[in-house]
């Protein structure tokens, strides 16, 4: 023990003597000479570069900050870390203390980081500034890997971490400009707590994730990286809550644009030019903030003479050249009355996804009960579910009752009173009268089942009962057209009585609904895939959705129509890919002709040859995509489009 201490003391004295008597410049020369024989290479990343902030330094700080805490328990890891938090971020940020080191493993290669900081003083020993830098040390044979892979990995990871940790901001308009003092959006709503039917929630989340990861795809197809959503339905059905959940899911800022506070198209253009990337632009109640209704309804500005924002100005702002000034943006329109909005605002490219948020269902009630009361089952659930499917009550009204007490029995009994009161009001009003349930349905969605459609689907009214034509035939107790009788018989054999849950007992009404379903099947059965159009199929799909809202068991038919629409979209993709392939082949042929020219220099020929090889690889990729799509389409070409749906 004594000998060990003696050696340490001797080493300390030698080191101190070396630093005291050998000038700094000589020491530096000696160290540089020694490093010539070392296999280690060091990169220095300073805080500033060429007189401005060094982007790589900031990225390194963010990147290492996410590693230091998890690595602090490892042997040889730093024992001193820094921690902090600003109002702009959600979580604590950690970092290395000065002169601390940490080892990062990338692709199995150890990479040693060291953080340094020196205080700069003037001749009077006054603090003037601080110099900060990172040193990255590794074996010389990994230089290329660090340059081409590791540093880009640091920058990309740091960007993702920064985006994930930043606070969501809420921006509003003040005097036709975005308010400079944006507030933190601390809205607690997430998709975990949002009460939506499970399939709809999953569809929305998948669509958002596809958009956020679709930069290269949008670039490939030549479209601006933006997405439009129309949220429509009765008041209190969760449109604002869905927007907050979207913002929290993506960590996007919200820009809330009230069009009635904008006096001209030029002001609107200015506002949209100053919307940041990674943001959601929200225009709520677009049907009533300004007179941007269907132009077929008459003079669009007669009732709002002071408003100068025009429909044309709004269209150009969200989908014209102005929309190219920025990317990774989402536009959301909300309305209680979709049919009052001009169709030009709703087409594909402006509103890509139409999401209907309708009245409460048994599913949404259970989610609300779990969120507010912490229960998944109760003896009053069956009674509530039975009533809630028969009347129109918004999720906001249900939530209001569930918030009145922390006692589940009290809340559920109060909710039953509300539902029974609404049911009594509904039955006391004449059918089709003002405020009736039918009117409410038309003002919102066409059915209580929340759903999404793409923007090119046409508007549909409620189902009209059909009159049975000449030469009717009876299948069981139902009377339909003779030409539809074999189809109805096959449906009943395969799926049973699909109208058994229909609330009306009239055989004539039930027969009319069955005739609608059989008519759709007849059209699909008689057609080939190439004979059908997407608008035609979406019209059928809307009719099937209406049948489902009347409790007909036709989900099997809806799924098949969805599959056929998807197949049509694959056909379009194949056509587009074939056209791309043709253009690439044509370009290769032209380049090969140029290569045959004796005038071309050797270097240029090499470049052309390399380019041809790259394009041939692209052709291979396109051909694989076409083959994959054709394989998926083969079943639609080889068999009937209703194969497996009927018991023939």
From TrEMBL:
Single GO MF annotation: ATP binding
Cofactor: Mg(2+)
InterPro entries documented for this protein: AAA+_ATPase (IPR003593), AAA_N_dom (IPR025753), At3g28540-like_C (IPR058017), ATPase_AAA_core (IPR003959), ATPase_AAA_CS (IPR003960), Mitochondrial_chaperone_BCS1 (IPR050747), P-loop_NTPase (IPR027417), PLipase-like (IPR007942)
Composition bias type Polar residues, residue spans: 436-464
CDD domains: RecA-like_BCS1
Pfam families, alphabetized: AAA (PF00004), AAA_assoc (PF14363), AAA_lid_At3g28540 (PF25568), PEARLI-4 (PF05278)
Region (Disordered): 424-465
Keyword vocabulary terms for this entry: ATP-binding, Coiled coil, Hydrolase, Magnesium, Nucleotide-binding
Reactions catalysed, as given in the entry: ATP + H2O = ADP + phosphate + H(+)
SUPFAM superfamilies hit by this protein: P-loop containing nucleoside triphosphate hydrolases
Sections of the chain in a coiled coil: 574-601
Annotated AAA+ ATPase domain residues: 225-361
GO biological process: response to stress
PANTHER family the record matches: BCS1 AAA-TYPE ATPASE
Family: Belongs to the AAA ATPase family. BCS1 subfamily.
Protein name: AAA+ ATPase domain-containing protein
Species name: Gossypium stocksii
């Amino acid at each position: 023990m004594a000998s060990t201490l003696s050696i340490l003391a001797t080493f300390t004295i030698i080191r101190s003597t070396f630093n005291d008597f050998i000038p700094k410049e000589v020491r530096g020369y000696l160290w540089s000479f020694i490093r010539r024989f070392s296999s280690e290479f060091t990169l220095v990343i300073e805080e500033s570069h060429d007189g401005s902030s060094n982007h790589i330094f900031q990225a390194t700080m963010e990147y290492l900050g996410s590693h230091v805490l998890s690595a602090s328990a490892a042997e040889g890891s730093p024992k001193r870390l820094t921690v902090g938090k600003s109002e702009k971020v959600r979580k604590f940020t950690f970092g290395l203390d000065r002169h601390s080191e940490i080892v990062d493993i990338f692709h199995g290669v150890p990479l040693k980081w060291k953080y340094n900081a020196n205080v700069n003083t003037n001749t009077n020993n006054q603090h003037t500034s601080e110099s900060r830098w990172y040193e990255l040390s590794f074996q010389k044979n990994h230089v290329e890997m660090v340059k081409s892979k590791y540093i880009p990995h640091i920058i990309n990871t740091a960007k993702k971490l920064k985006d994930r940790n930043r606070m969501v901001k809420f921006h509003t308009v003040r005097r036709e400009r975005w308010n400079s003092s944006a507030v933190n959006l601390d809205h607690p709503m997430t998709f975990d707590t949002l009460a939506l039917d499970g399939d709809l929630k999953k569809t929305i989340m998948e669509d958002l994730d596809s958009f956020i990861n679709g930069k290269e795809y949008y670039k490939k197809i030549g479209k601006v990286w933006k997405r439009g959503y129309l949220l429509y339905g009765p008041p209190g059905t969760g449109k604002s809550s869905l927007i907050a959940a979207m913002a929290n899911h993506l960590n996007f800022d919200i820009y809330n644009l009230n069009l009635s506070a904008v006096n001209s198209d030029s002001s609107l253009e200015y506002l949209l030019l100053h919307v940041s990337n990674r943001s959601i632009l929200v225009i709520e109640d677009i049907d009533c903030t300004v007179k941007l209704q269907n132009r077929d309804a008459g003079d669009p500005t007669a009732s709002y003479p002071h408003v100068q924002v025009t429909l044309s100005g709004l269209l150009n702002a969200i989908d014209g050249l102005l929309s190219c000034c920025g990317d990774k943006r989402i536009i959301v329109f909300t309305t209680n009355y979709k049919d009052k909005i001009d169709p030009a605002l709703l087409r594909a490219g402006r509103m890509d996804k139409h999401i209907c948020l309708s009245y409460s269902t048994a599913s949404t009630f259970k989610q609300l009960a779990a969120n507010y009361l912490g229960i998944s089952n109760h003896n009053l659930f069956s009674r509530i579910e039975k009533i809630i499917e028969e009347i129109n009550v918004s999720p906001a009204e249900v939530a209001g009752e569930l918030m009145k007490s922390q006692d589940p029995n009290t809340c559920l009994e109060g909710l039953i009173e509300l539902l029974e009161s609404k049911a009594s009001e509904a039955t006391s009003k004449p059918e089709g009268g003002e405020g009736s349930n039918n009117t409410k349905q038309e003002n919102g969605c066409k059915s209580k089942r929340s759903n999404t459609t793409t923007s090119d689907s046409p508007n549909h009214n409620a189902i009209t009962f059909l009159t049975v034509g000449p030469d009717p035939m009876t299948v069981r107790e139902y009377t339909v057209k003779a030409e539809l009788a074999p189809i109805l018989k096959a449906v009943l054999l395969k799926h049973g009585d699909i109208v058994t849950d229909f609330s009306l007992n009239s055989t004539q009404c039930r027969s009319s609904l069955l005739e609608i379903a059989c008519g759709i099947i007849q059209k699909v059965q008689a057609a080939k895939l190439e004979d059908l159009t997407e608008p035609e199929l979406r019209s059928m799909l809307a009719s099937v959705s209406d049948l489902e809202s009347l409790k007909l068991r036709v989900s099997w038919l809806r799924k098949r129509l969805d599959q056929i629409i998807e197949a049509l979209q694959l056909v379009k993709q194949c056509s587009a890919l074939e056209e791309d392939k043709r253009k690439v082949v044509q370009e290769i042929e032209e380049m090969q002709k140029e290569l045959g020219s004796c005038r071309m220099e050797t270097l240029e020929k090499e470049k052309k040859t390399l380019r041809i090889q790259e394009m041939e690889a692209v052709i291979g990729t396109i051909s694989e995509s076409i083959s994959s799509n054709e394989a998926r389409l083969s079943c639609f070409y080889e068999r009937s489009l209703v194969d497996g749906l009927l018991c023939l």
